[in-house]
Design goal:
The complex is a heterodimer of chains A (248) and B (599).
Chain A (H helix, E strand, L loop, with lengths): L2 E10 L2 E10 L6 H11 L19 E4 L2 E4 L14 E4 L6 E3 L2 E2 L2 H8 L19 H11 L6 H5 L1 H4 L11 H11 L9 H6 L11 H5 L6 H17 L2 H10 L3
Parallel strand pairs in A: 1-5
Antiparallel strand pairs in A: 1-2, 3-4, 3-5, 6-7
Helix pairs in contact in A: 3-6, 6-9
Chain B lengths: L6 E10 L3 H12 L4 E4 L16 E2 L11 H11 L6 H20 L14 E2 L9 E2 L5 H15 L3 E3 L2 E9 L2 E9 L5 E11 L20 H9 L3 E2 L4 E8 L13 H4 L3 E3 L13 H4 L6 H7 L15 H13 L9 E4 L6 H7 L1 H11 L8 E10 L2 E2 L13 E3 L16 H23 L8 H16 L6 H15 L3 E2 L1 H18 L12 H25 L8 E2 L12 E8 L2 E8 L5 H8 L2
Parallel strand pairs in B: 1-2, 1-9, 2-6, 9-16, 17-18
Antiparallel strand pairs in B: 3-5, 4-5, 7-8, 8-9, 10-15, 10-19, 11-14, 12-13, 13-14, 19-20
Helix pairs in contact in B: 1-4, 1-12, 2-3, 3-12, 5-16, 10-11, 14-15, 14-16, 15-16
Classes of the chains: A alpha+beta (248), B alpha/beta (599).
Chain lengths: 248, 599
């Protein structure tokens, strides 16, 4: 049985470094299996988050050989045999311990999203929606909140200060899902422009690249949101109409 | 009131567990105007509900107008081999449609019919296409909708906070005690009422679809507090889990594959389910492949394919095929949708199955069959509750979702768990709030007891030498897998009890390395108590029920026995000891009995 050489980050907010572990690698193993094997046999207190082990819950995000990934969906056989594999915590969030980071930023930002506010039901008591009208928001609803897109976004990855006024790709996906929801009546454009830092995104598409759900974050969520904000606030014709009619 | 020295919070209602049931309970309690908190072991939105795939069962009648709550009620009881609590099954069937529409009103986007209504899909044991769904990620849609709704309602959430004991005052609920996973610090909740929504026990088996959270902690806390458990022997092994490669064995493959046209085959390419149609379901099941295939599009003139018999039947059939050496190369059978539906359809209807097999097993399910076999999945039984109020035998303690027993009887139908969560989550939140509002007098938390609990939890750090908690858990899973699996015998169950006694002894000697900060070996050490307790309860109940029914199959008593069909096995802890008694099922009213007789 081949041996996997793993360099796993161990440490907490005070500091730490990579430690090497050697683990027998069975067929079909993913990185998370190897981490569990290290826990069970060599480092019982190795801290790691995980739940479903099938790419559905988004708990086991980490940087594997420098690339943001879900450990449960990263097969060991994609790496060259015999070469060390590094596993590090997500860098954009404060470290708690080992591979576990404090991701509360994302939950705080979620609290600030203005709620879904549906229109009244149709006369027969139902909401009629055509499948083609919900295909796009359904794409956004696939988000498993692994926060890899937040982790890789350079607006906050290298600039801690920006976290105060930048929601990040995950939250833009959520805003887009609400804005494109056929039943929703809320308007979040001003908030996006003024408080959520939509303008900071310069569409480098790093978020789209790492999304394990293959959501086209930049093309389908962020750019259309930018267009909506532009239409609302920077359209010269609309500006003139407003000016003349006195409507806001 | 004597204060404990630990961080303390005071609420009217605390809800433990933040899956569908816990979220729905917290939303309801909060809406009733009581101070409510939600406490969960993982981050918000990661609970087991997120993994539910196929759909939520509700007789909306959007695809088949003939469908109604009466048919859903009947299907649920037949699927449960009539061991169900009739009143729970009635409330569930009646209220599920309103709960689904409520989810839609809160933002959920279910797949649509041609005329723009909620689409429904076929699933095992349901007479009509009944499951509202979103591709094969319905649970994600549901948990996210509830999560966001709860967040917008401003409910306090304590994430990564593990409750280890319910606190009582004179037999009534007074709060709960636990620790923050991040810091390892203890925390006390004073509360008038507690809703348990902690899910199941699947981590006692080796091959399981369940996550680390499913340690039976809620069930054990309820038992230790004085609540009754029922039907613990009737555990559900889902027929289709992945079997290869070894590291993914047990991961769920949705029943939706069969609902959407997939079929089970053995190594000879035979659709073997036709050989396993039980007498109980013969009249409603197709006898030929032609009839089964026609049924997908014409349900009026054809009977259901045996591939969609209830889960207990299918799991046993797969088990037999593998035993007779007609299985697939890695000890399962084949599940084939590739030869029956086109690639676009498969990718659209089953995107996460496509992704899961492609990424984890190098199998393209649009081109080749999957290999599948049974995997530990769902606790049909659980804490006994009052059907209308979700109250347990302990005043102030409520339970909803997988942890509660009764609704599903001896075997749950697919799709009935997501509806269970919202129907009874809502009821638990409602009646917990009402209980808290009406409670007279003051509650006291015994500071000395809390201190003793804290010291007990810290003891494993002080031991020198000793056992590794991971090794004990692994050995427990081996024992339960080989001796208390799908097919059981008296000899093996007795052997399991002996091995469990040894494991309990070993668990007392566990030593924890490192400190209290986010230390999974300490967390697992504390979980061993509940893992071992529920293992013993399942084994004892399995030994007691001398017949085969639903999720409980005895090789030495292979047939159902009408006498056993009239009782639930109730498990209680009295003065430290576990006791079992056969309790008669509640008597069903005649008008509901008539529904069961109709075809």
């Amino acid at each position: 049985m081949p041996t996997a050489i793993m360099r796993v980050f161990r440490g907490d907010a005070k500091g730490g470094g990579f430690q090497e572990y050697r683990v027998p690698a069975e067929e079909g193993m993913v990185v998370l299996d190897v981490i569990h094997e290290i826990q069970a046999t060599q480092a019982p207190d190795l801290a790691v988050r995980w739940n479903c082990k099938a790419g559905k819950c988004g708990s086991c995000s980490a940087e594997v050989n420098g690339k943001p990934r879900l450990m449960c969906m990263t097969r060991m056989n994609i790496f060259p045999e015999g070469e060390p594999i590094t596993v590090a915590p997500m860098r954009t969030f404060p470290l708690i311990r080992d591979l576990v980071t404090d991701v509360s930023f994302n939950f705080e930002m979620a609290k600030r999203v203005p709620a879904f506010r549906p229109r009244p039901r149709d006369p027969d008591g139902t909401y009629r929606m055509q499948q083609e009208d919900i295909d796009r928001p359904q794409e956004f609803h696939k988000c498993i909140e692994c926060f890899l897109c937040q982790n890789v976004c350079h607006v906050i990855r290298d600039h801690e200060d920006n976290k105060r006024h930048f929601a990040g790709p995950r939250l833009f996906v959520r805003y887009a899902a609400l804005e494109m929801h056929p039943l929703d009546t809320n308007d979040r454009r001003e908030l996006l422009k003024e408080k959520m830092g939509l303008g900071f995104c310069n569409i480098t598409k790093c978020c789209t690249e790492v999304c394990p759900e293959h959501i086209k974050i930049t093309d389908n969520a962020i750019i259309p949101l930018k267009e909506r904000v532009v239409d609302e606030y920077y359209d010269p014709v609309l500006w003139l109409v407003r000016k003349l009619t006195g409507r806001k | 009131m004597a204060e404990t020295k630990y961080e303390t919070h005071e609420y009217d209602v605390i809800v433990i567990g933040a899956g569908g049931a816990g979220l729905r309970a917290a939303i309801e309690a909060s809406a009733r105007g009581v101070k409510t908190a939600l406490v969960c072991k993982s981050l918000l939105g990661k609970a087991h509900t997120v993994m539910a795939e196929g759909g939520i069962a509700a007789a909306l009648g959007n695809v088949y107008p003939e469908d109604n709550w009466q048919v859903h009620f009947r299907d649920t009881l037949r699927g449960g081999k009539m061991l169900n609590n009739w009143r729970m099954a009635q409330l569930h069937a009646q209220e599920a449609p309103a709960r689904v529409l409520e989810l839609e009103e809160w933002g959920a986007l279910f797949d649509r019919t041609q005329d723009g209504r909620i689409l429904q899909r076929d699933f095992g044991g349901h007479r009509y296409a009944r499951l509202a769904h979103v591709g094969d990620r319905t649970g994600l849609e549901m948990i996210r909708t509830l999560q966001q709704h709860a967040v917008h309602k401003g409910i306090d959430v304590f994430m990564e906070c593990t409750i280890i004991r319910l606190l009582l005052d004179g037999g009534r609920i007074a709060g709960a005690f636990g620790y923050w996973r991040e810091s390892g610090r203890f925390v006390t909740f004073k509360a008038k009422a507690v809703v348990l929504a902690t899910g199941g026990i699947g981590k006692i088996w080796k091959f399981t679809s369940n996550s680390w959270e499913y340690t039976g902690d809620g069930v054990t806390m309820a038992l230790d507090a004085g609540a009754d458990l029922i039907d613990m022997e009737c555990y559900q092994f889902h027929p289709t889990g992945m079997v290869w490669p070894p590291s993914v064995r047990g991961i769920l493959v949705t029943e939706g594959v069969r609902g959407d046209g997939g079929t089970l085959k053995n190594s000879f390419g035979e659709r073997f389910m036709f050989k396993y149609i039980p007498e109980f379901f013969r009249a409603e099941t197709a006898e030929t492949e032609e009839e089964a295939d026609r049924w997908y599009t014409d349900k009026k003139n054809n009977r259901r394919t045996p591939d969609l018999l209830p889960r207990d039947e299918v799991a046993r059939a797969i088990n037999s095929e593998v035993k007779m050496v007609r299985g697939s190369p890695h000890g399962g059978v084949f599940l084939d949708i590739a030869s029956r539906r086109d690639a676009d359809y498969i990718k659209r209807r089953l995107p996460s199955m496509y992704h899961q097999f492609k990424e984890l097993a190098d199998v393209d399910i649009t081109k080749e069959p999957m290999e599948v076999g049974p995997t530990a999945h769902y606790m049909n039984g659980g804490v006994r509750v009052d059907a209308d109020t979700a109250a347990t035998a302990v005043p102030g303690l409520f339970a909803a979702g997988e942890i509660a027993g009764g609704l599903h009887g001896a075997n749950r139908l697919g799709g009935n768990s997501l509806s269970d969560l919202v129907v009874f989550g809502r009821r638990a939140g409602l009646y917990a709030a009402e209980y808290a509002q009406n409670l007279k007098g003051t509650l006291t938390v015994d500071a000395g007891w809390v201190e003793a609990l804290a010291q007990e939890a810290l003891e494993p750090f002080q031991r020198t030498g000793g056992e590794n908690p991971y090794a004990i858990h692994r050995d427990l899973q081996e024992t339960m897998q080989s001796l208390v699996g799908i097919i059981r015998t008296e000899g093996e169950l007795k052997k399991a009890l002996e091995e469990l006694a040894t494991l309990k002894e070993r668990a007392r000697r566990v030593r924890v390395d490192g400190n209290r900060q986010y230390n999974p070996s300490w967390h697992l050490t504390l979980d061993l108590h509940s893992l071992l307790t529920v293992s013993e309860v399942v084994t004892l109940a399995a030994l007691e029920r001398k017949e085969s029914r639903g999720g409980h199959t005895r090789d030495d008593y292979p047939k159902p026995d009408p006498e056993w069909g009239r009782v639930n096995i109730a498990v209680r802890r009295r003065h430290g000891d576990i006791t079992l008694t056969p309790d008669p099922l509640p008597e069903m009213p005649d008008e509901l009995k008539k529904l069961l007789e109709e075809r």
